Amino acid sequence: xxxxxxxxxxxxxxxxxxxxxxxxxxxLCSDDSLEGSYIxxxxxxxxxPGELIVSGDFMYSAVVVPGKLDYVAYLKAGNGGENLLRMIxxxxxTFFNNMVEDDDESGFYRKILFNKLEPGEMExxxxxxxxxDRARRAVIVLQYSEADYSVSEMxxxxxxxxxxxxxxxxxxxxxxxxxxxxxxxxxVLGRKCRSMVDTIEEELMVSVQAxxxxxxxxxxxxxxxxxxxxxxxxxxxxxxxxxxxxDYNTLGIGKLIYTSDRKVLEDFLDESVSRKTFELLDxxxxxxxxxxxxxxxxxxxxxxxxxxxxxTLVYRIEKVMKITGLDLRNFDDAxxxxxxxxVKCYIDKLNQER
Length: 354
Hints:
Elements: H1 3-12, E1 17-21, E2 26-29, E3 52-55, E4 58-63, E5 71-76, H2 81-113, H3 121-128, E6 134-144, H4 151-158, E7 165-170, E8 173-180, H5 186-204, E9 208-212, E10 216-218, H6 222-239, E11 245-247, H7 253-258, H8 262-271, H9 275-278, H10 283-294, H11 299-305, H12 310-324, H13 331-353
Parallel strand pairs: 9-11
Antiparallel strand pairs: 1-2, 1-5, 3-4, 4-5, 6-8, 6-9, 6-10, 7-8
């Protein structure tokens, strides 16, 4: 927690210094080996705000941070020591006050993303945090495995000149509120998200899943984009498991299935391609069909990408037709098969969660 503060102090101070809590435990020290050890009888100093006391080889001063534990700053006594110690106190108090402000600001953003603001809090928060209300924005929700480096810092490095806001949602989850120019639409939004996800995965060696929300025109409706970004993540987890980015703006039939009544979906599945029929199709056939759909029902391109002889691919497609009665080379039959397979995947997911 004190790493950033310590780096700043080390750049300015060339003698022994440190900060201890009210129990005398050293939480920051110019000598790393002393961190975690204790200063004996620190309570006997009876420090008052603004007061400097010399005891032994060191000078001491209180660090006043409202709502926090009391801290004591200390410095090796010597010429100019008073000014250096006051600088340590100022840096430390500013550090903690910024933490309080950051917590307050992050809390406001979390409330608005989850639509939990009380009446009047919106206008107050926008004014307090100097937020531009009328601007085109979209939320990207990231879900990632544990990283050694801060994902938030990485995003700031990727978009150093963007007016984006980062909101931590919990361990391994954050929301990035991206501001867009008037001429930037869903295509640019998707491209920026792809750049962000690829960079995080390559630089931090972590796996990332992203959900992109819709574009909104004012800050007061940003929670709608967050909700839809979360929806995109959920839908993508079921229907787009080979793709680590799911865009609410292009979810298509997956969004329709995800938001439909389960009984309606089960009836549809029974009337089209039943689950028992799907069980007759092995993984190899399913992967072939998915590749065929991905290549817009183009037999030659599918065979090339899968390193299959054309006749082998045709044989597999005809095998599907024998089992299901659907000829995937026909557009209407292909749509029926894909819809049924997506419904099956969704119902299987629901059954696993029971």
